[in-house]
Amino acid sequence: AQDMKDEDKLFRHDGVLYPTIMSPLENLKAMEHLEARHDDVMLAAYPKCGFNWMVAVVRKVMAASTGHEGMKGPPLIEFFDPKAQQLLSEVPSPRFLGTHMHPDNMPSSFAAKKTKMLVVIRNPKDTAVSFYHFSVKNPVLPTPESWDTFYAEYMSGDVCWGSYFDHALAWEKRIDDPNIMIVTYEEMKEDLSKGVQQISQFFGFPLSKEQIQTIAEDSTFSSMKENSKDSHGKLAGVFFRKGEVGDWKNHFSEAQSRMMDAEFEKRLAGTKLGAKLKY
Ligand code: A3P
């Protein structure tokens, strides 16, 4: 990745940018044929909304309840090459899978099989700040010229996996679907035990109060950061930055904040998801 020119690090597919190294076009094409199962455990999130956090929580919930560790590594289906995607058909149930894809661009078999899906979403301002720092530090992504240029790209949806607002609106449409549970980064920060309990109940992995408590304690930002050398290797510092609500205040100008508030008003005001995304 170090030798790759910045302009080659992203490519556009159906109008949306993707990272060339992590999810090349051949992966996206192969993924269209992925055969979802009814009992897959699926996690979906726009980038930087707390995906890795929820990966850790779901893995611990599944391990505590079933006694199996499951597959290692990032579960993002668009990161699996065509061969690895084929091998997925041999993985025993329940498989734990994840994606950053917009719900309209996910393999259609997930909807057909009514696979349960946990969605984690975060307020758009902190997501933008997290995405900016991630882009600066991650060698597979182009380095933004500045916070201001990144902000402009984020607002126009010219970042990997597309526009935050397009994703949020697509989830808003599905918010009452019984197979979908939407949680926010902010509510997880507020009460992680409650979040763990809701997740275990949603996916049908019953846990004792003690198990829930232990998982919540092991999944705080500080414990995950401490263990991140093992879980994320060299990328530990890239994925575990600050882990707080409201860091946008240290980055946004008045004008940037007003512009995003206006976009939020225009697109999400009065919606159920909009009400959950207070910031
Ligand atoms: P910050 O950059 O604001 O610190 P993703 O996993 O979707 O890429 O999201 C990354 C964001 O989640 C980063 O936000 C990261 O620090 C934060 N994060 C990771 N683990 C966390 C945890 N256990 N608790 C709270 N936030 C966490």
Automatic annotation (TrEMBL):
Residues of the signal peptide: none
Give the UniProt keywords, A-Z: Transferase
Ranges where the Sulfotransferase domain occurs: 39-271
Q: What EC number(s) would the UniProt record show?
A: 2.8.2.-
Q: Which Pfam families match?
A: Sulfotransfer_1
Q: Which SUPFAM superfamilies match?
A: P-loop containing nucleoside triphosphate hydrolases
Q: What class of enzyme is it?
A: transferase
Instruction: Extract one GO molecular function annotation from the record.
Output: sulfotransferase activity
State the family named in the UniProt similarity comment for this chain: Belongs to the sulfotransferase 1 family.
Q: What is this protein called?
A: Sulfotransferase
